[in-house]
Amino acid sequence: MQPTPVDWGEAFRIVGGGLLVVFLIMSLLAVATTIMGKIFTARDAKKKAAAAAQGEAKA
Amino acid sequence: MSSWISNHDGVLKILDVQVGFGNLDLPHIIMILVGLGFITLAIVKEWEPYELLPIGAGMILANLPLTGLTSQPEPGMQPGMAGVLGIILKYGLYTWTILPQFIFFGIGALTDFSPLIANPRAFLLGAAAQVGIYTSFLGALAVGLLWPDWGFSLKEACSIGIIGGADGPTTIYTTGLLAPDIMGITATAAYSYMAMVAIIQPPIIKLLTSKAERSTYMKPMLRPVSRPERILFPIVAMLLIILIIPKSAPLVGFLLLGNLFRESGVVERLSHTAQNELINIITILLMLGIGASMPADRVMDPRTLLVLFLGLAAFCVGTGAGVLFGKIMSKFSKEPFNPMLGAAGVSAVPMSARIVHHMGQKANKRNFLLMHAMGPNVAGVIGSAVAGGYFLGLFINF
Fold it and tell me: Is B381 on the interface with A (CB under 8 A)?
C-alpha cells in the first residue's frame, strides 16, 4: 500500500486532541470518583457515629 | 488418472490428491518456525502462554499450504469451502469485530477497580502512560520521510501507536477497523511486549529515577471502598466516557458492563461465566484468529520490522512518560509518593504493577506498593481504550 503524503498539521492536531481527550476524561473520572468517595465516606462515618450513639444510649 | 505424480499450476499432486510439500516455500517455512518459536516461548518460558500458544498455533496452521483453513466466506461460495480460521477472521475480527469486545467484557468481570477508586489520582498516571501511543503515531508517520516506499498511512500510524497502550483487545479492535492488514503483527507485538514487561520496564524506571525515589515509602493500605461505590463506579465512568467519546463504547462499554456484573453481586452466575468460560472460549477464537491473520505474504515485509520497533518504542515512551508524570506528582503530593507508580500506567495488568512492587521492595524492604500500583494499572486499561476510541472517532462513522 502506497500511503499518501503526510499532512503534519493534521497529525499534530490528532496528537494534541488525543492527549487532551485522554487527560480530560481521566481528570473528570478522578474528580467524579473523589466526590463519590467523599459522599460515601461521610455517609459511612455518619452511620458509624449514629450506631455508636445508639449503643451509648442503650448502655 | 494420468500419472502417479503430477504438477499442475504449481500444485503438486500424488494420485490426484494435492500435496502440501510442493507449495511450501521459504516465507511459509519462516512463518511456521516463528509460530513454533511462539509455542516454545509459551511452554518453556511461560510468556503469556494463554495468548502466545494459540497465536503460534494459528500462525502455523495459516502458513501450511493448500489447507483452505483461512479461506474467508464470500457470497456465492460453495458450501464447505470457507475455512474455520477464515470464518473466525471474517466474522470475529474484520466484519463484526465482536471478539475483542467480549474479551473486554471478561476483563471487566475480572477487574477490581477498588485500588483506583480509593486513590483517584491514579487516573492521571493512567493518562500519562498513553503518551507513548501518540509518540509512536508520529514516529510511524515520520517513517515515510526517511523511506518513502515504506511509509505508513494515518490509519496505520494510529494502529501502530495503540500498541503502546500494551492492551491486546484495544490494539486488535482498533487495528481491525483501521488497518486490518497489519492487525496480526500489531496484536502480536502488543502481547509480546506485555510478556516482556519484566525486561522492558525496569531499565527505563531505573534510568529515570534515583534510588532514593524508588525507595520512597508509602503506607501499604488504601482506604476500604464500599460496595455502593464499586457499583456506581462502572456506571458513572461508562456514561462519562461514552458521552464524550462515543466510539469508545464497544471497548469501554463492555469493560465496565463486565465490571458491573461483577460488583452488582446479583448475577453471580453471569459474572462467573464472563470471568471463566466466556473469556476462555473467546481467547481461543481470538488468538487463533490473530495467528491466522499472519500469512507469510502479509508479514514478510520490511514494514513488519518497523511496526515491531515502533510498537516497542511506544511501550518504552509510555513507561517513561508515566514515571516522569509520577515524579511531577511526587513533588506536589502532601504524602510520600513513589514516582515508579507511573510506570504501572501502561495497561499490562497486573504485570506492570508487579514490576513496580518488586522494584519498590528491592529499593526499600518495608515498601509494599502492589495495591498502589494496581490503581494506575487499571486506569491504564481505561486510558488506552479511550485513546483507541479517539482514533476510531477520527476515521469511522457508524
Answer: no
* A44 lies within 8 A of chain B by CB: yes
Q: How far is B190 from chain A (nearest CA, A)?
A: 20
Nearest to A15 among B134, B223, B244 (CB): B134
Q: What is the DSSP letter of B11?
A: E
- The string of DSSP letters for A21-59 reads HHHHHHHHHHHHHHHHHHHHHHHHHHHHHHHHHHHHHH-
Contact B344, B205 (CB under 8 A): no
Q: What is the model's pLDDT at position B78?
A: 83
Distance CA B373, CA B65 (A): 47
Question: What cell does B98 get?
Answer: 465482536
Residues with Cβ < 8 Å from B379, sequence gap 6 or more?
Answer: A26, B116, B122, B123, B125, B126, B127, B345
Q: Given an 8 Å threshold on Cβ–Cβ distance, is B117 in contact with A36? A: yes
Amino acid at B105: F
Enumerate the residues of chain A whose CB falls inside 8 A of the CB of residue B226. Answer: 40, 44
Enclosing H/E stretch for B7: strand B5-8
Indicate the residue of B151, B225, B394 with minimum beta-carbon distance to A14: B394
Give yes or no for B140 touching A (CB within 8 A): no
Answer for the pair B271, B261: CB distance below 8 angstroms, yes or no.
yes
Q: Cβ of A22 and B121 within 8 Å?
A: no
pTM of the model: 0.89
The pLDDT tens digits for B278-301 are 999 999 999 999 999 988 888 888
Whole-angstrom CA distances from B188 to A17, B175, B254, B312, B344 are: 28, 12, 22, 12, 21
Half-sphere exposure of B294 (CA within 13 A, CB side): 30
- The number of C-beta contacts closer than 8 angstroms across A and B is 112
Q: Is B24 helix (H, G, I), strand (E, B) or coil?
A: coil
The phi and psi torsions of B174 (rounded to 5 degrees) equal: -65, -45
Does residue B13 have a pLDDT over 80? no
Alpha-carbon distance of B348 to B212, in angstroms, equals 26
Query: CA B165, CA B351: separation in Å to the nearest integer?
Result: 14
Q: Cα–Cα distance between A56 and A13 in angstroms, integer?
A: 63
Chain B, 237-276: which have a CB under 8 Å from a chain A CB?
237, 240-241, 244-245
How does residue B95 score in pLDDT terms, banded at 50, 70 and 90?
A: confident
Model confidence pLDDT, tens digit, residues B312-330? 999 999 999 999 999 999 9
Instruction: Please indicate whether, in this complex, the C-beta atoms of B124 and A34 are within 8 angstroms of each other.
Output: no
- Neighbouring C-beta atoms of residue B174, cutoff 10 Å: 34
